Fold this sequence. Notes:
The chain is of the alpha+beta class. The chain has helices spanning 9-20, 61-69, 91-95, 116-127, 153-168, 196-199, 204-220, and strands at residues 52-58, 74-82, 102-109, 135-136, 139-140, 146-150, 179-182, 186-188. The protein has one domain (9-220): 2-Layer Sandwich (Peptide Methionine Sulfoxide Reductase, Chain A).
Amino acid sequence: MVRANRWIGTMGVVLLALALCRAALPVARAAEEPVAVPAPLLDNPKAPGPLQTAVIAGGCFWGVQGVYQHVRGSRQVLAGYSGGSKATADYETVSGGSSGHAESVEIQFDPRELSYGEILQIYFSVAHDPTQLNRQGPDVGTQYRSAIFYANESQKRIAEAYIAQLDRAKVFRRPIVTKLERLTGFYPAEDYHQDFLLKNPNYPYIVINDLPKIASLKQVFPGRYLDQPVTAAQSSR
């Protein structure tokens, strides 16, 4: 991964997003094939109530954010950092791999329309490959780890039970390596990372690695697919 020491002006911001983020574009390797996983046996029932929040990590946050922006019941989806301190929650530091952060996505969702278990079902099925340790596709390092940052004991129980359920069913050819980590903070990424997939659908990394995830979401979960995506700037209502 290319790192920059100094950037000047608006062009520097653009180059930081495009060059710094994903320097080595894969030529032949596309996104992982989706795996249609069964629904979780343990889940919260859908019911009216205040918006809830889920924080997950599964490689580059561009694609994961893009997936959940197309999920019915999402109200706001932000790219950001979790797992480290506020002081190190910036892209250049996180890209170095020693901050403790993972590129993460925060999903605010309506519990009447979308359950926490359904978020995890999409996560394990189309958002990323949970059997890759500290990497996703061309991106390597602990900042790209597969992780669920649980906000409370209910989320922890659902995630633990679901991972055990999928491992018992041998849904994947390799063991799930997803880490469960207590959520200590979510720090939104820089503005140029927000809605990156929506704003840059022709960027080669997005075309090769992330647009197939959106197509898989529509194919595997047609009832959950939202044609008009929510945006990071959209008010969580």
